[in-house]
Design a protein that fits this description.
Keywords: Lipoprotein, Membrane, Palmitate, Signal
Family: Belongs to the NlpA lipoprotein family.
CATH class of the largest domain: Alpha Beta
Oligomer: single chain
InterPro entries: Lipoprotein_NlpA
Radius of gyration: 29 Å
Subcellular location: Membrane
Distance between the termini: 106 Å
CATH superfamily of the largest domain: Periplasmic binding protein-like II
Helix content: 40-55%
Membrane topology: Lipid-anchor
Strand content: 15-25%
Length: 318
């Protein structure tokens, strides 16, 4: 009995030590799993869980739009979402779309559906872009740096007029000039008309094409320039300087500005959170404070992607 008792006293510390070692091994493994979970919660992939930080980028092409989206980004943070939105300013439309297709940004906001359709037809990267929502009407305005030109009647003969150099906006502007009596287009003019489809040009206007951002700088060397008003406001002009302004009630939905995303991410919940944060009265209030002719259209509830599909069918059936 004494021997057994002595043997037990010798073995017991060894068993306890083994048990503690095993327990220590379990704790170590548990700690490793916990570290992986923490690391996982710091990933930035789209589709992350609610406690992960999701880094997204939105592309814009004007400083006014940049300011509006920065306001949206600030509110995403203030509202406690897990989305960190960076606003990226581009100098031209094609670069902003290419960046979206290639994954350098996650959404952009500057284009009409006809421009998007044309880009999708011409780009070779394979991934198409689609409109996830409409935002506003970017109203066109006709401007002059000559104080003597206050109305259409004041436009001199052979006036030099600057406008956008991409086919879609050329067509849009031609329709705008036609609607306001500056020119007359043929009755059978195409959906995106060109200068060749003008049948009456009473002022013998000479058309000059260039990137939209260059138009305000080029205006002193021209008699007139026409494009989205925001470009001229960016350059220090005011809405009151416009000779004529586009009537937003006459703007068809395909010429509303849209938020574009990659086609396979139309249903991404994080992108939808960004869109939902944009489409609020807070955005309208802020945008109106910096853009006197800000005209939102998201309240109309028009399905942007369906409008794209309808436009595609109409164009391809012509």
């Amino acid at each position: 009995m004494k021997f057994r008792k002595l043997l037990w006293l010798i073995i017991l510390p060894f068993l306890v030590a083994c048990g503690l070692t095993a327990g220590s091994g379990d704790a170590s493994e548990s700690s490793t799993v916990s570290d992986k979970t923490t690391s996982s919660s710091e990933t930035n992939d789209i589709g992350s869980t609610s406690d992960e930080v999701v880094n997204l980028k939105v592309g814009v092409v004007s400083s006014i739009t940049e300011d509006i989206w920065q306001n949206v980004a600030d509110r995403l943070e203030e509202n406690g979402t897990n989305i960190n939105l960076e606003v990226v300013l581009f100098s031209d439309f094609a670069t902003a779309n290419t960046a979206l297709v290639e994954g350098d940004i996650d959404l952009n906001n500057f284009q009409y559906i006809p421009f998007m359709y044309t880009f999708n037809q011409e780009q070779t990267q394979g991934q198409e872009i689609r409109p996830i929502a409409f935002t506003l009407v970017s109203r066109l305005g006709l401007f002059s740096s000559d104080d003597a030109i206050d109305s259409l009647e004041d436009i001199p003969d052979n006036a030099a007029l600057g406008m956008n150099d991409d086919a879609v906006r050329i067509g849009y502007i031609m329709n705008f000039l036609d609607a306001n009596g500056v020119i007359t287009l043929a009755d059978d003019a195409s959906t995106i008309p060109t200068e060749d489809e003008i049948v009456e040009n009473p002022k013998i206007i000479q058309f000059n094409y260039m990137p939209a951002a260059q138009l305000p700088r080029a205006l002193p060397d021209l008699d007139l320039a026409v494009s989205a008003v925001s470009y001229f406001v960016d350059a220090g002009m005011t809405v009151d300087d416009a000779i004529i302004l586009e009537d937003p009630e006459q703007t068809p939905p395909e010429y509303f500005l849209s938020i574009a995303v990659r086609e396979d991410e139309l249903d991404d919940p994080n992108l939808q959170t960004v869109v939902d944060t944009y489409m609020t009265p807070e955005t309208d209030e802020y945008a109106a404070s910096i853009n006197p002719i800000y005209t939102p259209v998201w309240q109309l509830g028009i399905d942007a992607n369906q409008t794209y599909e309808d436009y595609t069918v109409e164009l391809e059936n012509q």
